[in-house]
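Exam revision sheet. Question 4 asks you to relate a sequence to its structure. Input first:
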Amino acid sequence: MKEKILFLTAYVPNKAAAGEKNTMIMLNDLSSVYDVDLVYFKYQWEADYVPEKENVKVVMKIVNSLLVKIINICHFPFVYPLFSIRFNWFVVRKIRKLAKRNCYKTVILNHSNMFLYGKYINKDIPKVLFCHDVIAQRVIRSSSYMIQKICIFSEQMVLSQTNGHIFSFSQKDCDLIKKIYGKRANLCLDYIDEKILGKKPEKIEDYFVLFGDWKRKENMDGAMWLISQVGPCLKNKVHIKVIGRGFPQNLRNVSSNLSLEVLGFVDDPYSILTCSKALLSPLFTGAGVKVKVIEALACGVPVIGTEIAFEGLPLQFSSFMLLANKPEEYAEYIEGIDIDITERIKTKTAFIEAYQSETITSYINRLL
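Answer key, structure tokens:
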């Protein structure tokens, strides 16, 4: 009989967004060794998660809404809201009962929204805290001094847990956690989708790719900047295939120099990405490593991006990470990019070899 673990995640595991897809792969990986009890949060309009492995069991599904978030914040009003919007005392009681009954080997808290729960779980049970990004860095870039102080206090508090083990998806974030909070974070790189491993660049077609969850503000803001600022700088019309849920169809023809083909969610986006000239990643806010950039490099595809798009990625692949913070620079790269198939295959192979790492399953086996 397999040992049990409890897995709490802030979003529905699915293939539509990078972080949620990584969670799906992680659950499948963990299930090869453990029986996994899953607690996840969802909005009413989202489809339920259907486990791909029979020993992943959904033990609690919490329906989220704006009203629920406001109530949750009131439960813990003295912390930065991102850490309390999914915190609920009813859920705490249910989790404590599950932990008492099932003798979990560990509890995994996936996303910073979940960390508060770890403070109220039996101290003898090891907790794995997955930082998808360092929230203080995100807030420092966009908020006032007082808000920054509240956020730093809150993040320090939720990361300070008896028997807690912090994990991050980039060395940059591990270093930030050490610098800001004096805490050690273990590096556990994102999973690379198996579909990517089998893709080989064989031809380069005349289009670029925008790839993301367009319900996320930082992605949509970047796309609007590309349309409004970079479009007018282009000399010739550029074809862009837009992949991901939530991109407004009415933006297809707003720029005379950009032809946007809105594809929506695509089950296998990597066939499209692999044949593109480049991935476009104009990001100006946010924190943490960008999964779509990792996936592009693992496909052997160059990325034209802003400084934030490349945070936490290995510098040895800088020839495929084309930095452009100004519209004119972006337009110049779009019109001048010319990286051949041989170089793409070489970079794909080298990136995957450099990026593949231990899985969270092996970490748990070794550390706990």
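Marking note for examiners. The radius of gyration is 21 Å.
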